[in-house]
């Protein structure tokens, strides 16, 4: 039976400077079946056998392991090609650690009009998909649908000439994956970006479960209109007006079997100790899961 299990996310560390080992121990101690981390963290800790022993000793598995595809869709060609050359070896490490998913992003803006950027992105995604073929690892690309961002984020985009709207919704992400005929490139579905881009439950139901690779869950303030949601002003699931039980239920019915990470960016949980943050994450999910007819375990 398909399950949606919680994984401890780096944003739940409350700014705490936890080591990789401390993070894994925290996940196990607070009842998370999984923990998110990067290959860089794992490699710094030790070889694959040592990392696997740590995970097993704490009763957790990898949720998401970052760092398999080390270039963006619109990175310079040499950088992109070099990154793809390393995919098989890096994916092999992910599998050796017990993982099967990694993350990435899809550009909200492009440096050229969408009609010109689209075929370039399709070609790049086809190559990314082919590079992952046979590795046992899928990548979830996160679209950014939230309408309002920090000034420094906007500056980062504009400084690179990225001023033309590109992919900003689940519908557009599905459209490009259909054109790619993707097998290994999927979606990181964040409830904030889904809701902030006028996403619908129907769109989720139309999404192949095999394409939903990762989940991020959070909520938005009830007194803030959809089109005014700020990416760095999220609140805990259940505190706002997102239809999260329906969201999870629809995702479950696609056949998705994987992990959901709490990602509450902004001041709401700033300064909360990692252990308290981890516990609060599970506490806020329980009533939502119950309403959706799902189990946390």
Largest beta-sheet details: 8 strands, parallel
Tell me the CATH superfamily: Divalent-metal-dependent TIM barrel enzymes
User: In oligomeric terms, what are we looking at?
Assistant: single chain
Uncertain regions spanning at least 5 consecutive residues: none
Query: Could you spell the SSE succession in H and E letters?
Result: EHEHHEHHEEHEHEHEHHEHEH
Strand order of the largest sheet: 3-2-1-10-9-8-6-4
How many domain regions? 1
| DSSP E strands, number | 10
* CATH level-1 class: Alpha Beta
Instruction: Estimate the helix proportion, in percent.
Output: 40-55%
Strand content: 15-25%
Average pLDDT, to the nearest integer?
A: 97
Summary, kept brief:
The chain has a single domain (4-292), classed as Divalent-metal-dependent TIM barrel enzymes (TIM Barrel, Alpha-Beta Barrel), CATH 3.20.20.150. The protein contains 12 helices and 10 strands.
């Amino acid at each position: 039976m398909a399950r949606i299990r919680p994984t401890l996310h780096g944003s739940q560390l409350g700014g705490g400077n936890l080591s990789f080992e401390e993070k894994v121990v925290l996940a196990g101690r607070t009842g998370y079946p999984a923990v998110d981390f990067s290959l860089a963290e794992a490699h710094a800790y030790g070889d694959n056998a040592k990392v696997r022993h740590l995970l097993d000793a704490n009763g957790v598995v990898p949720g998401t392991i970052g760092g398999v595809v080390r270039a963006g869709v619109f990175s310079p060609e040499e950088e992109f090609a070099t990154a793809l050359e390393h995919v098989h070896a890096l994916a092999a490490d992910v599998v050796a650690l017990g993982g099967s998913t990694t993350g990435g992003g899809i550009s909200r803006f492009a440096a050229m009009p969408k009609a010109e950027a689209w075929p370039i992105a399709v070609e790049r995604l086809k190559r990314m998909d082919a590079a992952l073929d046979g590795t046992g690892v899928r990548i979830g690309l996160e679209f950014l649908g939230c309408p309002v961002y920090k000034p420094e984020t906007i500056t980062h985009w504009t400084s690179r000439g990225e001023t033309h709207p590109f992919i900003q919704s689940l519908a557009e992400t599905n459209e490009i994956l259909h054109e790619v005929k993707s097998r290994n490139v999927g979606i990181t579905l964040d409830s904030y970006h889904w809701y902030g881009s006028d996403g619908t439950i129907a769109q989720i139901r139309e999404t192949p479960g095999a394409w939903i690779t990762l989940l991020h869950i959070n909520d938005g303030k009830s007194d803030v209109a959809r089109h005014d949601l700020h990416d760095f002003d999220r609140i805990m699931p259940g505190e706002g007006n997102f239809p999260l039980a329906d969201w999870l239920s629809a995702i479950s019915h696609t056949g998705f079997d994987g992990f959901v990470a709490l990602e509450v960016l902004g001041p709401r949980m700033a300064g909360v100790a990692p252990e308290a943050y981890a516990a609060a994450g599970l506490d806020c999910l329980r009533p939502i899961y119950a309403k959706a007819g799902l189990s946390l375990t």
